[in-house]
Amino acid sequence: MSREPRGRNPSSERRSGKPGRAGKAGGDAEPMMAIIHGELPPREVILRFIADHPQQASKRELAKAFGLKGESRVALKELLRELEEEGMVQKSRKSLIRPGALPPIAVLDITTRDKDGMLIGRPAEWADENGVAPAVLIKQSSSPAGRNGKGKAPVAGMGDRILAKIFSAVDRGGPAYTARIIKVIDKRQGASMGVFRETPGGGGRLMPIERRGEEMVIDPDYTGGAKDGDLVEVEVARLGRFGLQRAKVLSVVGSVASEKAISMIAIHAHGIPHVFPAAVIAEADAAKPATMSHREDWRSLPLITIDPADAKDHDDAVYAEMDPSPENPDGVIVTVAIADVSWYVRPNSPLDREALKRGNSVYFPDRVVPMLPERISNDLCSLKEGVDRPALAVRMIFSKEGRKAGHTFHRIMMKSAAKLSYQQAQAAIDGQPDDKTGPMLEPILKPLWHAYHIMKKGRDRRQPLELDMPERKILLKPDGTVDRVFVPPRLDAHKLIEEMMIQANVAAAETLEKKKQALIYRIHDGPTLAKQEILREFLATLGISLAKGGNVRANSFNGILAKAEGTAHQTMVNEMVLRSQSQAIYSPDNIGHFGLNLMKYAHFTSPIRRYADLIVHRALVGSLGLGEGGITPDEEASLDDIAAEISTFERRAMAAERETVDRLIAHHLAGQVGAEFEARVGGVTKSGLFVTLPDYGADGFIPISTLGTDYFIYDEAHQALTGEKTGLGFRLGDDVTVKLAEAVPLAGALRFEMLSDGRPMPTAVRSFHKATRRNKTPARKAPGTRPLRGRR
């Protein structure tokens, strides 16, 4: 996890004469309760401190704030573990926060001003179940110095989207949080997007595409040529004291009837930069091919690229051979070469600043929003077949048992011997070579597969988490409409490239650690104790056990998955294990990668589409003395903020990609309202069931009020809704038949009605319900069904 954010130390308030937060609840007149410095305070005090100090609520900071040492620190650790198990607190980076609280770093949309003219923002991403998104007071810096005391401090305005450090507000009369701007994420000030609807007499209305959006009036002179049903981008033209806002059309994206416009909705809604500034394009166009300076000539080595058939850029190439050393009998040498983006994208250049602003490329079914301009990503850095290209290569030696004996990094000039697709390479190995792969089979492809099988021995011994969650792809027709949804086969060719890239990433982290070079790791924390307990209780209803204790490993989950394989519960168990996992992030502080079961791991293999990889490339170039383009001291000092930014942008990209798929599927199914579908219960909440259509990969909602006349009780541990009187209900993973009741394409929302009868719940679930009734917990039944307005 990343370093603890540098915030205000509670003790500094005492030195300045202000009441310390440990003794007072955020400045309230009433003291929380008597606290003896050096003794463990009550639970309520700890919880209040965590709520008030989201940026300082680590175990170390808590111990420091309350003066805890020795046995008191041990007791604090145990108390925090109990609070986490009970769901009273949760981890966010290195700090603890209360559930529903903002994390130490968040993306905010600036939406309004307070009575004093101060900017107010709200989190760009906020779960509906957490209630109304909290307001955050934006504090603009009065100092001209920016991050690390250099450059200009970022300044934001209305309509901007920002990345900010979050602090609990001292003044209880205003917003619950304050924020300091880390950076402004590009977004046209005051810009909004919606569907243009003509009105009689000229002009029109803007119908919002977001749930919290508002209608606007567009005067006849400001329509910008938009036609009824066009997706348009507008800016507010005039704000009146009464009535609707008036807007001016800035651009027409296209007819909303065309699904090619749908990805633009997500691009706009998430503030994803998608137009390169002129200075960035100019720098990319002026770039010249790399020279042989500080490079080894590897152009005779037959490295090949293996990618999806429709790939436009190629950033990794591979080659394998037997190790001739008598000290490593039957061992192999695996070479992975990665495009040398660091040669072209230098620190703090226009290209670099724009790449950091994007963080990563974003992939939609109909388009890609690249991190770098095409001149760089698809041309100069792409490892094209038969063309000289600069690269960073790692040469790894493995024993016949799959153990790595050593590795070395090299800055090279290479020439790809062939560009193959996964299917093409696999077909050749399976005995169906074509004219291109036939001559390559013996000298190149078979040695690669032999090396993979040796490396697989090491992977099997390591036992990373092996979830079986097939990824669906949407295939579009030429007009942009959905043709079909399918699950591409998982080939050994995919696994070969994946394992070679993983080992290259490990080698990068190991080398930089050995050089004592600061870097950005890819880290993945283990599941929290609270999530483990939820999973444990759920598995118990299936007769599967999960050992208690905090030292769970990835192979513990593999045993569970193996027990469920081939049973009716296989999909359900895979989904629940996935939900129990933490989210991987980037950080300059290493805690290892739980899912891959690796202690040292850094992203190195995709610098064309991920900024984290570019940072690792620069770190390698600088620490190994490989020439120009190395990491700078300013970058090293900013790694904490950079890691937080790119982690946030990765989540932004994932949300935008997921929402676009939801909208495409909803658009595709909009003409099938009333049709019946086979579905699977993919989520259980207090409000109803989320169901998935396996044939489409689409998710939809069934309100609890439509399940029947019984009152339904929600059981989180068993992921079930059960009728209080009948004992019949629905659980996660149940196969059901549903009817499509409503589709809202622009929101990506589907509402279904349940056609299947509930089934008898297991004994453990019924016992839970009896206990619930004894404790007088009210049964759940929604008071009615409202039309869908947006996504969940």
Automatic annotation (TrEMBL):
Gene3D superfamilies: Nucleic acid-binding proteins. The keyword Transit peptide does not apply. Residues 674-755 form the S1 motif domain. Its EC number is 3.1.13.1. Transmembrane segments: none annotated. GO terms for cellular component: cytosol. It catalyses: Exonucleolytic cleavage in the 3'- to 5'-direction to yield nucleoside 5'-phosphates. One of its GO terms (molecular function) is RNA binding. It is found in: Cytoplasm. Belongs to the RNR ribonuclease family. RNase R subfamily. This is Ribonuclease R. It comes from Rhizobium lusitanum. The gene is rnr.
